[in-house]
């Protein structure tokens, strides 16, 4: 089984292989107990969105990982692949811009109370 970093690198490699654009990795380990990394990537069409999700699933399964779930394949505008501690959002640009997950999670980081003694 891959650790979080290895899984993140495997996902990014699978996305790059199918020419995903604007790949962003967000460390959510201090913001959520449900997952440690969120990877967001853009695709130019529903066909590419589905191909990217399929490639992530195939490549991670080849490395012995379990895919917990996939959502959004009906429309293909936004597909979520749940790999446990790593969540993958594959979105078409207009959807990505509308929901702006990067800003949402960066605001969550900024609003997080600082723990005593932490930097």
What are the main properties of this structure?
Beta Polymerase, domain 2, alpha+beta, 5 strands, 41% helix, 5-stranded mixed sheet, single chain, 119 residues
Counting structural domains, the number is: 1
| Topology as a string of helices (H) and strands (E) | HEEHEEEHH
Considering DSSP H and I runs of 4 or more, what fraction of the residues is helical? Answer: 40-55%
Mean pLDDT: 89
Gross morphology is globular
Classified in CATH, the superfamily is: Beta Polymerase, domain 2
Rg: 14 Å
The CATH class name reads: Alpha Beta
Total count of helical runs of at least 4 residues: 4
Main sheet record: 5 strands, mixed
Distance between the termini: 31 Å
Question: How many individual β-strands?
Answer: 5
| Unreliable residue runs | none
Strand adjacency order, main sheet: 1-2-5-4-3
Do you know the CATH architecture? Answer: 2-Layer Sandwich
In terms of DSSP E residues, the strand content is 15-25%
């Amino acid at each position: 089984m891959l650790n979080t970093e290895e899984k993140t690198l495997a996902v990014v490699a699978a996305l790059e292989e199918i020419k995903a654009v604007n790949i962003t990795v967000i460390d959510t380990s201090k913001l959520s107990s449900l997952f440690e990394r969120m990877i967001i990537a853009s695709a130019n069409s529903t066909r590419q969105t589905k191909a990217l999700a399929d490639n992530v699933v195939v490549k991670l399964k080849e490395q012995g990982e379990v895919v917990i779930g996939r959502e959004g394949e009906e429309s293909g505008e936004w597909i979520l692949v749940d790999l446990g501690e790593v969540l993958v959002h594959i979105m078409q640009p207009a959807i990505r811009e509308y929901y702006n997950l990067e800003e949402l999670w960066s605001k969550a980081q900024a609003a997080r109370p600082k723990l005593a003694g932490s930097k």
